[in-house]
Specification:
CATH class of the largest domain: Mainly Beta
Helix content: 10-25%
Number of helices: 2
Number of strands: 22
Strand content: 35-45%
Largest sheet: 7 strands, antiparallel
Low-confidence stretches: 11-72, 76-95
Shape: elongated
Distance between the termini: 118 Å
């Protein structure tokens, strides 16, 4: 566009010049095809003149180096959204992809895995959980039994307070150790106000659990001497029966049952504590004791020594009796005999070592019986160190 303007101006100038310069005729003008060439050269020449006379010379200033250890300012933000406009970046409290209901296990507050309990022991299991979902757990939520060993627990335990997302809570359930020895595990989850169960893990489908071992300590598990005062004592003299006072007089005609110490036995040894018994003052009379219940387990043995107290001069005496140990099943009331030992004062004690494993898991009441084998005199019978031991 500018070139054509310059051509027009140039042609005008040439026409004027042709009129003013003598000797130049219109027919002397250059051919049309040369006019544009002339014009272009003229424009180029004038641009060169203008460039040399009008364009200022620009000299770049030397760059000032940044101070060392100085971090250049950050580039300006590229986000040109208006203040308050929504962006694609989630807020810090958002949990992208988290389900409404989800928990994570934090700690076993009580009863760590494989804690040992005796059969029938009651205990409280407490878990610490964190709400890692997006919904608040309200008191309409509950701790619920999922599967495994229930251990006497209820089906559900309602929450007592609300738990917001991100908060932790301690949840507890009352349990009872099973009666049989072994390892037991109960699995638990949570249930929301709509009846939907959920648990821990990314998919909120895993359970948390309580795992315990039901066991018994070794050593003496049932001491007949220590429990003698809790037993029910009776006598039978052949003509009369009735209750026998425990720890009564030594000359009670109905018989005697008490703990004595420092007795000299028929084998010459001197004892600590023994269970001392005598039958009624009659031929073939008897006394018996029914003990409090005890649950038998594998590895239980009935142990002890049976015999007689020696005479005051250390001689053996005329003792002769029948020692019998029975048991009564509390499940059906039937009575069975563990053993029967006929003994007389011969300077030796009878050693007991009876395996009770066949009664594993059974609750029994032991029954001790002393029968006078004929004349009662001299039947100062002792049950020494009688116990159940594992």
């Amino acid at each position: 566009m500018r070139a054509r303007l310059w051509i027009a101006l140039l042609l005008g100038a040439l026409l004027i010049a042709g009129c003013n310069f003598p000797g130049m005729q219109p027919t002397d003008l250059p051919p049309a095809e040369n006019i544009e060439t002339i014009a272009a050269k003229t424009i180029s020449a004038q641009q060169t003149i203008l460039a040399g006379t009008l364009r200022p010379t620009i000299t770049a200033a030397p760059a000032t180096p940044l101070p060392q250890n100085t971090t250049p300012p950050p580039p300006p933000p590229t986000d040109t959204a208006a203040p308050g406009a929504p962006t694609s970046t989630p807020k810090p409290t958002d949990t992208p992809g988290a389900p409404c209901n989800r928990a994570s296990f934090v700690a076993d507050v009580t009863v760590p895995d494989d804690t040992a309990f005796r059969p029938g022991d009651k205990f409280t299991k407490t878990w610490r959980l964190k709400n890692t979902g997006t919904c608040t757990w309200t008191p309409s939520y509950a701790l619920v039994f999922a599967d495994g060993d229930k251990m006497g627990a209820p089906d559900a335990v309602p929450l007592t307070a609300s738990v917001a997302p991100g908060q932790t809570v301690d949840l507890s359930v009352e349990l009872t150790a099973p009666d049989t020895l072994g390892t037991y595990q109960g699995n638990w989850q949570l249930k929301d106000d709509k009846g939907q169960t959920f648990g821990i893990g990314e998919k909120a489908d895993k359970t948390f659990w309580v795992r315990v071992k039901v066991t018994l300590p070794g050593g003496i598990t049932y001491d007949f001497l220590a429990r003698a005062s809790s037993a029910t004592w009776e006598y039978d003299d052949g003509t009369d029966t009735g209750s026998l006072p425990y720890d009564g007089a030594d000359d009670d005609p109905r018989g005697v049952a008490k703990i004595k110490r420092d007795l000299k036995l028929e084998d010459g040894r001197k004892t600590g504590a023994v269970l001392f018994t005598m039958p009624p003052h009659s031929n073939d009379g008897s006394i018996s004791a029914t003990y409090p219940p005890y649950t038998v387990y594998n590895g239980d043995y009935l142990k002890g020594l049976l015999g007689f107290q020696a005479e005051s001069d250390g001689s053996c005496g005329a003792g002769k009796a029948v020692f019998t140990i029975r048991y009564k099943l509390t499940s059906d009331g039937t009575v069975h005999t563990l053993g029967e030992w006929h003994d007389s004062c011969d300077g030796k004690l009878v050693k007991l070592n009876v395996d009770l494993s066949s009664l594993n898991g059974e609750e029994v009441q032991f029954i001790l019986i002393l029968d006078a084998d004929g004349d009662y005199r001299g039947d100062r019978a002792v049950w020494s160190s009688l116990r159940v031991e594992r």
